[in-house]
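Field reference: sequence -> structure
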Amino acid sequence: MPFKIHIVDSVKRYTDKLDEKAKKGLLQEPQRGIVMTPETFSKVFSPERIKLLQKIHTNNITSIYHLAQELEKPYEVVFRNIKYLKGIGLIKLIQKDKRKIPHLSGIVSIQMFANQDVET
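Structure field:
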């Protein structure tokens, strides 16, 4: 299931529109995702975290330590970012032996103009 990130001007207006559609029975299936403003998006998806997600997506990462080496960053910094991204549902950790292997939770889709129309 895709993980959708909706970037909106106002989270309240977006959720109000979503509530209206729900009351009318116009929502079809539940979605996994986050609704945030551009300001919040820029804090959550720092260049460092985007590079981390790209490495996980494009490389055969075998552990968090391996990912830290690939990014040329201290393990603690990478672990902290992994923990944060796991907390919002973008990353899952798979335990193999003593290693924790980071994987994307699914396809990530960013919708920048979601405030103009609430998707069903």
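Note: The CA atoms of residues 49 and 81 lie 7 Å apart.
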